[in-house]
Amino acid sequence: MNLAQLAESSLERLGERKSLVFDGRVYSNVELHNQSKRLHTAFSNLGIKRGSNVVLFLMNHPLVYPVFEGIFRTGGTAIPVMFLLTTPEIRFILQNSMAEAVVTDPMCVDRIREAAKGLDHLKWIIVLGGEDNTAVTPPEVSLETLLQEEMTHGLPNIAGDDVGIMMYTSGTTGKPKGVMLTHDNLYAQGLATLDAGELENWEGPYISMSAMPMAHIFGVGVLLAGYLSTEEIADAGSFGVQMGWFETDQFMALIQEHKCNVMPAVPTMLSLILNHPGGDKYDLSSLKEVICGASPLPEEVARSFSERYGCRIREIYGLTEATGLGTSNRSSGVYKPRSAGPAYCNIDLKIFDGSDTPLPPGESGEIVLKGPTIMKGYFNLPDKTAETVVNGWLHTGDVGYLDEDGYLFVIDRVKDMIIRGGENIYPAQLEDILYRFPGVAEAAIVGTPDQTYGENIVAFVVASPGATLSEPEIIEFMKTETSSFKIPSKVHIIDVLPKNPVGKILKRELREKALEMD
Question: What does 76-145 look like in DSSP terms, one character per residue?
Answer without folding.
Answer: -EEEE--TT--HHHHHHHHHHHT-SEEEE-TTTHHHHHHHHTT-TT--EEEETT---BTTSSS-EEEHHH
